[in-house]
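are you around this afternoon, could really use another pair of eyes. what follows is a protein written twice so to speak, once as letters and once as structure tokens for the fold. i want to understand how the tokens follow from the sequence so walk me through it. anything you notice is useful, everything is just below.
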Amino acid sequence: MLALAKLYRPVTGTPFQQDETYREIAPCAALAPYIRCFWGSERPLPDRPGPGGIVIPDTCMDVIFHVDYAQNRISSSFCALDSASSFTPPCTSCGGLSATFAIRFYAWTAALFAEDSLRGSMNGRYPAGRFFRRLERALEPILFDTPTLQGRIAAAEPVLLTLLGAGTADADVLNAVHHMLRTSGRVRIGEAAHAVALSPRQLERRFDACMGVSPKTLASLLRYQLLWQDMLRHPLFDVQDAVARYGYTDQAHLLHDFRRHHLMSPREALRFARR
């Protein structure tokens, strides 16, 4: 698990955003192999108009708590693995006071904290209690009276460590994911199954229960996410080099696949990320 976290650090469509409305903070060392980050608003903030955004397939899953101080209530949701991007609408409300706190899991670790199988959950938005009842019950009473992001993280980490002790990782799934990452998502599913001594059908069932996604879909998402990270990191990113590195047939194939996942061309995506 730790090896995967060191090997792979997925990013969002706006990875440079860090302000009072949205900040990402790394978990403690004990949770680092399982949680990509905590994120949310630094403190309760007045609702105000703002631009829309984009949610890309970052190969993560999020449990999100929204604290509405005006209505004196907390709501929570679970965002499963996405296979395509979606645009979020601009915020038009104002006058209220609210805060957001979220836990972002790696795709292959969310199941360790859930009570139910994640089978068939891909592209879904659910009440958090459908899969994470214990986490929801433990955190909701705490979050309303804990106004800062750091305070919420301090309250959440002991709960997550307790829940982690009740989960069991699927070693075959983790090894198959490691094989996919080592090949930048280019591996054939039969090869991934052979690498962990399973049939393709068995691997399909294991992936669906653990992540709600097929091995083929996850490999495609990993390839897209690694490509996106390359674009962000390298000012002189070369498309032709990427075609060879990620196993595309030609430049047109790469650009089509990227737009299919991101809804933008690479140039548009980078401009949006750095706006």
Residues 31 and 112 are 12 Å apart (CA to CA). The longest strand covers residues 97-106. Residues 215-233 form the longest helix (19 residues). The mean pLDDT is 94.
